[in-house]
Structures are given as structure tokens and as C-alpha cells.
């Protein structure tokens, strides 16, 4: 049927509406007039982004809040730039293809220099919050020219400048300095995971990348002319099939299909150059993805073509013969299931895609931008300088379906009365009194709150900016109840898991937790451990990069709640970590300690590492794994006694390489800890020969204020008892300490001592006969050592 415009918004329900109107209503003579092609509308229609090109370069965002009273000071996604760095595009991630949970829109802002910012809109936090900033490109000199998202892939075309050392390129080769790249991208529990960069195509011309379904289309630069063969065709890349399809606008079948294993553009098209050189294909004026793998293309001949998923190019519709696209001709395209909407200038064409029949032609008062709304993909939506509109189908009387504000108010009053009338019947049937209930008595009495609450919700829904919120909450509750009643075991488990996650996030995000709430939280973790752990990760926004690093983007208030001095609050999460991600426990402790240092949370209570150790000891885990985690927890704590305890555990396990690593790391922390560690190591050296490969490393840790006497006393004190009269020369394979092993250490210490003692260092350099006279105390100590140490020749 025919459609009629129905205004959804005049922008007054968007924050900053006056500025938005001013931006869109600049005179055409103004050089700084905003182009509608630089406006983006989010899939839910609640966010409008405007890319500014001149005179200022930046981005302005206008948001429609479901709860305006919560958005008195909203966090807006507005950015401005200096030095010519501009925004390439703003697009929205489809969380259905990712692992994102909860509500909210995730917008990605990509800059020309390769920077990408991931922002999430949180209604409860009143605005946009930065999740992560990443570099898409490997080279700092690369320049992004176009970007899109295809399922869980970020795909972009970047310009890579020629090396300064390379010879000057020809005009043709100079145009082949671009490459098309990709990264895997997942948003999970508030964290963004970006995969490594992979090159799809290189040595190619400038392409505009467009995502449609499971395909990425590479169109030649629309601003470039078609003198060169490299601009006479376009490509379609299928990540799923790992293949390229080469097509042109003057042929309705693909020129060639080939594997994407060949990523060099020049080799890819080498067989087609002769054929392409003879073609004169029409230019592409405008395009729009169909969402199911295809593209809608408007050519300079006035023909509207549909590029299908299989590579076939099909004619759809022909504009008037006098259509001559100019550089300043405004065009906008969008596909709504089987209907193509096309704006040329101020004329809107609605076309049936399957048969090419023009359904309707509508004259617009102003230029407009077509966009899709995820809530109703069959209906065309339009943005103009006066607001947002939908092209609703007319009913049999010729009126547009949908209520105007006046009709909405009138209908709302009727519905409110209907609510109270139904309530009267309901309560009267269940009343034991003979008194007749009336609508007025229900409204004034105050005894029956249900109809009053429902009427209030309905008024808000119809009359205020709170539309849909309360009603959606009630509908969601009814659907939840119905799913629990009707669903099977798996459905009930899924619904229960969702409820558990919401409750944990709510409790951890609350400003205070009393004893009763904490018991409630403990019961949730006990009864639903898996769902509670997932919710805790979401609340703390934990991100593990795979290389041992754990980070959190949660607000300090959330961490304050986690580290609260209530009993079992922190161990609660430690139990979940040990159960589901035991390898994370040391890094989780480190993260907790950093958060504790930055706030007053957890002061004057049991240290966090001891709470974590208590949890570890109470769980039935593998002994070897538990000991390894115990050592890591002790070391992460950074406390001297804990470090020494970890060192003793490693010594008992005879993990000498790890022992030396720990010693080198922590001897730098404090002189006192250095002495304790060195004493423990020297004790070990005195008792066996297993540390021989590491002696040079250990001697380097000797405290500065240690003397020869101090070292000899330590060795004598810890040397094991042996036979009273050992042989003068020990077996080369003996485990006894030889004085030759101590030479480097004693030499080092003697060299640090005063000059008068310097001459005695020669004793260790070369044994002379007879040696110089030794001080009496040193002579006695060496004679005592000879009774215990075997002297090597």
C-alpha cells in the first residue's frame, strides 16, 4: 500500500537539540554546511552522530535518553581535533555477532591515523563511556581511508606511503600503495578483544570497503575517474569462503572468482587487464548494502542495479531520462527487505526490488537521509533538518498508521479510564462487601495501588520522554514469567542465568552492602557459581590479554564494594577465580592490591594475599598447581616475609632457576630484604653443589656492607657436619663445598675493603709459597675452614 510520512521526533527529545538543528539548517551557501552523508543514526534511532569536516574537524553526538531526569549532565561523545587528523567513520557493532551482554550501544570511532575508539552508551551511567582505544594499523605512517565491520571482523583500507629510499614510482604504481586489512573484534563483558592484523589485499588502489551480510565489497574510489583499468571493476571478498569475486558494472555476471590466498592485487587481476582495458563501464554514484550480502548501486546512467550475493548484477529501476548526476546532487539509498528507498535531490522513490515497479514517488520539502531501524526493518526511516520520520503504511481510510501527539493524548485518557473500569469489575467480583465500587472511588481511595500504578505508567508512556521504559519493563517481566512456566529445563536455566547475572551486577554496583545483602550475594555465588562468575567479570570489566596481564575498567566504587571489609567478600570472588580461571588468581590479587592502594577500601584488615591463600588452601585443587599458585600469591603480595616464604618453598622444591630469578627481582626492593635473601642463598650454597651453575648471579647479590668475616661466619655456621678428618683433596664429584667456589665472592668483597687489606687479595689470585702473613683472626678462620672444606688442587 501507499505510505505517508509520520514524524517520530522534532529533535527536542535529544540532548543538544538546538545545536543539532543549527548544524542541519545551515544555508547551502555556507561553506561549512553539514552534508547529510556525514550524519550517522544508530540502529535503535537513539543516537545521532555528526562528522564535522570544516572549519573544525571533529564529532558531535546527540542522544535521546529513556530517562531524561537521569541525564541532567550526560557524558557526550564529542571530540575535536587539531593538526588535521580527521574521523574516517563512525559505525556500530552488532553485539549479536559478538559476546556482548547487557544493553547499550557500542560505537566505534575510527580516525585517519589508525586510532580506533570503542564507546558504549550506558543509560544507567548517563552517557558514553570509553571502553578501549586501539591502533588498527601496524605502521604509524599508515592512513586509513575507509572502514567497515563485517560480523566480528573490522576491515579497512589504508594508504601506506612509499619508502623514502625507494625510487620514484610511476603514476600507475603510485596509485597501488594501498592495502586492505582486517582484525578480529569481540566485545565481551564490557571489554574489547582485538585480534592480530591480517592483510587481505595489498598493492591495490584506493578502495571503499562496504559490509553486507557475510561479504565485504571493495568499490573503487567514487571520486576517481575511470581512465585506468584498475578503476573499472570492483571486488567482493567472502571471509567464509576465503574468496574474491571480480565484477564490473557493464557485465551482469562476475568476470572471475578465485581464492583469496593470492593477496597481491597485481597478480590477482593480471589475467583480466586485457579484457578490462576495452570496457567503458558506467560510474557508481551511490550505493547501499542490502544486509544479506548484496549491494544496491545507482549508476550515472540513471539505472539502479542490485548486486546479488552470488555476484550477479541485476537491473532494478531506471530514473527519468533527464537524470544527470552532478557533484552536488544529493542522493541517499537504503534497502528495507523487498523495498528500495532512493532519494535524488528532493524526490523520494519507493521501488519494489523483485520486479522493479515504482511503488510511490514522494516530493520532499527538504533533502533527507535514509536510514534503517533495527526495530522495524521493513519501514523506511528518514532524517531531515526538521526531525526524524518514518514512512508508515496507510490504512484503508487513507490515514497513516500511528498516532499523532494529540491523538496519543486522547487515546491515553481513554485507556486510563478503561484500566480503572476493568479494575472495578475485578475487585467487585472478589469483594465480600455489597458496596458498589466506582472509578472515582478507586482513583481517590488509595487502597488499590495496582490500577493507579498502571495508569501512571501508561500516561508516562504516551505523554513524556519515558516512553517504552516502564511498559517494556512490565512486558519483559510478563515474558519472563511466561517463559519460566512454559519453558523446558534448558530454557529455565538460561532465564535463571540471566537473572543471576543481573542481580550480581546490581549488588556489586550498589553504593552500600549491608550484612543481609552480603548473605544474599554469598548464596547466589554458592547456588549459581558459573553465572555469578560471568556476572562478576562483567561488573569488574575484567580483560585478560593472553600474556598474563589482567586489567579492569570498572569504576572505583565497584572495586570498593568488592574489597569491602565484610567477611568473605573478597574470598568470594577468589573462589570463583580458582574454580573457573585458576591461572588468573595471582594477577587478580595484584589488581585488587592496586585498587586497594588507590582507595580507603580494606584498610586495617587481613591482607588480601592472606585471604587469597586461605581460599586456595580450602579448595580441593591439584597439589602441584596449588603450590605454584601459592608461590605466585606470596610474591605478588610484595611483603618481605611473604617473599622469603615463597623463596623457601622454591628451595624445598629445588627449583633453582626460579629461585635465582626471584632473588634477582626482590633484592632490588630493599637492603634488608637483600640481606635476608642472600643469607638464605649462601646457606644453601654451603650445604650442596646444586647452585653451582648460578654462583655468578648469586655473588652479584652480595650486600655492599658484607665483609669477608661475615661471609666466612655464615659459611661455617651452615656447613654440614662431615667426618672429622677429611682427605686433603675431595672427590671431584663430591657434594661438599670447595673453597675454590668462594674465591670470586671473597675476591669481590676484599676488593671493596680498605687499601691496607688489598695485598691479601693476592692470596686468592695466585697461591704463592710461602704466602704473605695473614691477620691472626683471618688465619684462624681459614684453618677452621680447612677442617670442613675439601681443597681442590
TrEMBL record:
Domain BLOC-2 complex member HPS6 N-terminal: start-end pairs? 6-391
GO terms under cellular component: BLOC-2 complex; lysosomal membrane
GO BP, one annotated term: protein localization to membrane
Which species is listed as the source? Poecilia reticulata
Any single Pfam family the record assigns to this protein: HPS6_C
**Superkingdom field:** Eukaryota
Residues in BLOC-2 complex member HPS6 C-terminal domain copies:
417-775
Q: What is this protein called?
A: HPS6 biosis of lysosomal organelles complex 2 subunit 3
Cite the source lineage. Eukaryota, Metazoa, Chordata, Craniata, Vertebrata
The protein's matches in InterPro entries, at most eight in alphabetical order, are given as: BLOC-2_complex_Hps6_subunit, HPS6_C, HPS6_N
Amino acid at each position: 500500500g501507499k505510505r505517508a510520512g509520520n514524524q517520530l521526533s522534532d529533535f527536542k527529545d535529544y540532548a543538544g537539540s538546538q545545536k543539532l538543528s543549527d548544524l542541519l539548517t545551515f544555508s547551502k551557501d555556507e561553506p561549512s554546511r553539514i552534508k547529510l552523508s556525514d550524519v550517522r543514526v544508530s540502529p535503535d534511532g537513539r543516537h545521532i552522530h555528526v562528522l564535522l569536516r570544516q572549519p573544525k574537524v571533529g564529532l558531535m553526538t546527540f542522544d535521546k535518553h529513556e530517562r531524561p531526569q537521569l541525564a541532567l549532565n550526560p557524558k557526550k561523545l564529542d571530540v575535536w581535533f587539531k593538526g588535521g587528523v580527521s574521523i574516517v567513520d563512525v559505525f556500530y557493532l552488532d553485539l549479536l555477532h559478538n559476546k556482548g551482554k547487557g544493553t547499550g550501544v557500542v560505537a566505534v570511532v575510527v580516525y585517519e591515523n589508525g586510532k580506533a575508539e570503542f564507546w558504549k552508551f550506558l543509560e544507567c551511567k548517563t552517557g558514553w563511556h570509553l571502553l578501549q582505544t586501539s591502533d588498527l594499523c601496524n605502521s604509524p605512517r599508515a592512513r586509513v581511508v575507509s572502514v567497515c565491520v563485517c560480523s566480528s571482523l573490522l576491515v579497512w583500507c589504508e594508504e601506506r606511503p612509499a619508502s623514502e629510499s625507494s625510487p620514484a614510482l610511476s603514476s600507475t604504481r603510485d596509485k597501488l600503495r594501498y592495502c586492505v586489512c582486517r582484525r578480529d573484534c569481540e566485545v565481551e563483558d564490557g571489554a574489547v578483544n582485538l585480534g592480530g592484523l591480517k592483510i587481505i589485499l595489498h598493492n591495490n588502489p584506493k578502495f571503499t570497503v562496504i559490509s553486507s551480510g557475510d561479504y565485504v565489497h571493495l568499490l573503487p574510489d567514487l571520486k576517481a575517474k575511470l581512465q585506468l583499468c584498475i578503476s573499472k571493476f570492483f571486488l567482493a571478498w567472502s571471509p567464509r569462503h576465503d574468496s574474491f569475486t571480480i565484477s564490473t558494472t557493464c557485465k551482469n555476471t562476475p568476470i572471475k572468482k578465485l581464492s583469496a590466498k593470492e593477496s597481491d592485487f597485481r597478480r590477482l587481476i593480471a589475467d583480466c587487464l586485457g579484457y578490462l582495458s576495452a570496457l567503458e563501464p558506467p560510474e557508481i554514484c551511490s550505493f547501499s548494502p542490502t544486509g544479506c550480502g548484496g549491494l544496491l548501486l545507482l549508476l550515472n546512467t540513471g539505472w539502479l542495479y542490485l548486486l546479488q550475493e552470488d555476484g550477479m548484477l541485476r537491473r532494478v529501476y531506471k530514473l527519468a531520462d533527464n537524470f544527470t548526476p552532478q557533484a552536488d546532487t544529493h542522493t541517499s539509498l537504503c534497502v528495507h527487505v523487498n523495498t528500495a528507498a532512493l532519494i535524488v535531490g528532493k524526490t523520494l522513490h519507493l521501488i519494489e526490488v523483485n520486479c522493479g515497479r515504482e511503488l510511490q514517488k514522494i516530493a520532499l520539502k527538504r533533502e533527507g537521509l535514509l536510514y534503517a531501524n533495527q526495530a522495524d526493518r521493513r519501514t523506511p526511516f528518514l532524517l531531515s533538518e526538521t526531525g526524524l520520520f518514518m514512512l508508515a503504511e496507510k490504512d484503508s481510510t487513507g490515514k497513516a498508521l500511528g498516532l499523532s501527539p494529540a491523538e496519543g493524548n486522547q487515546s491515553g485518557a481513554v485507556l486510563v479510564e478503561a484500566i480503572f473500569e476493568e479494575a472495578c469489575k475485578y475487585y467487585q467480583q472478589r469483594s465480600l462487601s455489597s458496596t458498589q465500587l466506582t472509578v472515582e472511588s478507586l482513583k481517590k481511595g488509595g487502597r488499590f495501588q495496582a490500577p493507579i500504578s498502571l495508569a501512571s505508567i501508561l500516561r508516562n508512556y504516551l505523554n513524556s520522554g519515558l516512553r517504552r521504559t516502564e511498559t517494556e519493563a512490565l512486558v519483559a517481566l510478563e515474558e519472563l514469567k511466561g517463559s519460566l512456566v512454559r519453558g523446558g529445563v534448558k530454557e529455565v536455566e538460561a532465564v535463571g542465568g540471566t537473572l543471576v547475572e543481573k542481580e550480581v551486577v546490581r549488588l556489586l554496583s550498589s553504593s552500600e552492602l549491608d550484612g543481609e545483602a552480603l548473605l544474599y550475594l554469598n548464596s547466589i555465588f554458592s547456588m549459581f557459581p558459573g553465572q555469578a562468575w560471568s556476572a562478576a567479570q562483567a561488573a569488574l570489566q575484567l580483560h585478560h590479554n593472553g600474556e598474563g596481564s589482567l586489567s579492569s575498567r570498572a569504576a572505583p566504587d565497584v572495586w570498593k564494594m568488592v574489597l569491602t571489609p565484610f567477611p568473605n567478600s573478597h574470598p568470594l570472588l577468589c573462589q570463583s577465580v580458582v574454580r573457573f580461571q585458576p591461572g588468573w588468581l595471582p594477577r587478580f590479587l595484584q589488581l585488587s592490591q592496586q585498587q586497594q592502594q588507590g582507595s580507603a577500601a580494606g584498610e586495617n584488615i587481613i591482607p588480601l594475599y592472606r585471604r587469597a591463600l586461605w581460599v586456595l588452601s580450602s579448595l580441593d585443587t591439584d597439589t602441584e598447581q596449588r603450590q605454584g599458585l601459592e608461590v605466585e600469591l606470596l610474591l605478588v603480595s610484595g611483603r618481605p616475609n611473604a617473599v622469603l616464604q615463597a623463596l623457601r618453598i622454591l628451595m624445598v622444591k629445588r627449583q633453582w632457576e626460579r629461585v635465582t630469578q626471584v632473588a634477582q627481582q626482590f633484592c632490588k626492593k630493599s637492603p634488608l630484604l637483600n640481606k635476608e635473601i642472600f643469607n638464605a642463598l649462601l646457606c644453601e650454597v654451603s650445604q650442596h653443589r646444586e647452585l653451582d651453575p648460578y654462583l655468578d648471579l648469586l655473588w652479584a647479590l652480595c650486600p655492599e656492607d658484607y665483609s669477608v668475616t661475615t661471609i666466612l661466619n655464615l659459611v661455617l655456621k651452615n656447613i654440614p657436619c662431615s667426618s672429622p678428618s677429611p682427605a686433603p683433596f675431595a672427590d671431584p664429584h663430591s657434594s661438599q663445598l670447595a673453597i675454590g667456589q668462594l674465591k670470586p665472592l671473597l675476591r669481590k668483597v676484599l676488593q671493596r675493603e680498605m687499601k691496607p687489606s688489598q695485598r691479601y687479595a693476592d692470596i686468592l689470585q695466585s697461591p704463592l709459597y710461602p704466602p704473605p702473613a695473614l691477620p691472626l683472626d683471618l688465619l684462624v678462620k681459614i684453618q677452621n675452614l680447612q677442617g670442613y672444606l675439601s681443597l681442590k688442587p
